[in-house]
Design a protein that fits this description.
Elements: H1 3-27, H2 32-43, H3 59-82, H4 86-91, H5 93-115, H6 122-133, H7 138-146, H8 153-180, H9 190-224, H10 230-248, H11 254-265, H12 271-297, H13 304-332, H14 337-346, H15 352-364, H16 369-393, H17 397-404
Helix pairs in contact: 1-2, 1-3, 1-12, 2-12, 2-16, 3-7, 3-11, 3-12, 5-6, 5-8, 5-13, 6-8, 6-15, 7-16, 8-9, 8-14, 9-10, 9-11, 10-11, 13-14, 13-16, 14-16, 15-16
Length: 415
């Protein structure tokens, strides 16, 4: 069969099962994202191994699917950025910084503590802590959008803390490689760390110029031109460029650039127009592909019986460390107990940043295939548990009304 036809059929199957699973999940009183994640796990190598069926067996198809999934998470974070009021985000700067900083320190410390009894040295133990420190709030952002609470103080602080977390993890990884020469680093010392800091500052300065000057000016000009869907095209191009430059220029995660793009476009008068168009295209197929792809990448069979206890311990540490760290940071910054717990749980999901860090360790020999499989299990488990727990924390209608007070109605994700 022609590879294009294989890919066409593959996309059709994934979107159909993702939407059906999302619908079933909602009928059972759970967030739609949970059903999509579970069906991805079933279709993946853990159960059915769909990508290796004769009709889909083509390594290029798997790579193309992962590229589309990457676009899905970028535009998911773009939509999340559109939902956030920049001025409101600046107002929660203190709790966001506290939650982000402590949300990195706690996983690094606990990750090191649980790794040492399993025979990890100090260097490998610290690296495991760094892997656990990386967070990914795309799942949490989606769940909060479904619950219509993303634009509350908890949701806004969650997104701000995620940016702080991303910057800190990249800085610490750079410091680790500079001082130890591990993870593929050359041990360049302080000069290498300084270069990373300069790159980040340079990128953020560039993004600020684009966001506060170029985007409003371009939006006004493009809206007057006789170009079909010109504003939507502008939003797509800027998002892709900011995501690309986040990694290439700033050494940060691409999702940070996509989130910033949404944040900047959210300040323009055309926000509602952009939101409706991007939301339709994104949730029709890109986001379902992203959620299903998480399960398609996971292979719990690679753990074996020997690696299962360590993997289960890592999952527990991954959840507890973010609740204690990020939730504790929010509590110290003035949040109440209920909202601090919500924030800590929201920061618990891991994703592409943690997998990127783990891949660096795998290629450099710091961790093996079994430990890498454990990390994938952590990503999958925290991704599954987080929306369930958040849903439970917001299940009380009275509590949701209290948390949503003063917030505008956000967009709702359909199945």
């Amino acid at each position: 069969m022609d590879p294009v036809l294989r890919f066409t059929l593959e996309l059709a199957v994934i979107v159909v099962v993702a939407k059906a699973a999302g619908y079933l999940s909602i009928r059972l009183g759970q967030p739609a994202v949970l059903g999509k994640l579970v069906v991805g796990l079933i279709l993946g190598p853990t159960v059915l191994d769909m990508l290796h069926w004769p009709v889909f067996r083509d390594p290029n198809l798997e790579e193309s699917l992962l590229h589309l999934a990457h676009l899905g998470v970028l535009f998911l974070m773009f939509v999340a950025g559109l939902e956030v009021d920049l001025r409101a985000m600046l107002q929660v700067g203190r709790p966001a910084v506290a939650a982000g900083v402590l949300g990195v320190m706690a996983p690094v410390g606990l990750g090191l503590a649980v790794s040492l009894p399993f025979g990890f040295g100090l260097e490998r133990g610290l690296f495991m802590g760094l892997v656990l420190a990386a967070t990914s709030v795309s799942i949490s952002a989606q769940t909060l959008m479904e619950l219509d609470v993303l634009r509350t103080p908890v949701g806004i602080t969650l997104l701000g803390a995620a940016v702080v977390d991303d910057v800190l993890v990249i800085l610490l990884l750079s410091l680790f490689t500079a001082l130890t020469g591990g993870a593929g680093g050359s041990g360049g010392g302080g000069a290498a760390v300084l270069i990373v800091v300069v790159r980040m500052i340079g990128y953020l300065a560039l993004a600020a110029v684009v966001g506060f000057w170029a985007i409003p000016w371009l939006s006004r000009r493009v809206s007057r031109l006789p170009i079909s869907e010109g504003i939507l095209s502008l939003a797509f191009v800027v998002t892709l460029l900011l995501a690309w430059s986040a990694e290439v220029v700033g050494g940060m995660a691409a999702i940070t650039g996509a989130f910033l793009s949404g944040l900047f476009f959210g300040r323009t008068p055309l926000r509602r127009t952009i939101e409706s168009k991007v939301h339709t295209l994104t949730y029709a197929w890109l986001v379902p592909i992203f959620f299903v792809s998480i399960g398609l990448e996971a292979n719990a069979r690679a753990l074996g019986r020997g690696g299962l206890p360590f993997a289960i311990l890592l999952v527990a540490v991954a959840m507890i460390s973010k609740i204690v760290g990020s939730g504790g940071g929010a509590r110290l910054a003035g949040f109440g107990n209920r909202d601090s717990l919500r924030l800590g749980v929201g920061m618990a999901s891991r994703g592409e940043v943690g997998l990127i860090v783990a891949t660096v360790g795998l290629t450099s020999g710091l961790i093996g295939e079994e430990i890498f499989a454990s990390i994938v299990l952590v990503v999958l488990a925290t991704t599954l548990v987080t929306p369930l727990w958040l849903r439970r924390l917001y299940r009380d209608k009275e509590a949701r009304v209290e948390s949503s007070a003063g917030s505008e109605k956000g967009s709702e994700e359909s199945t």
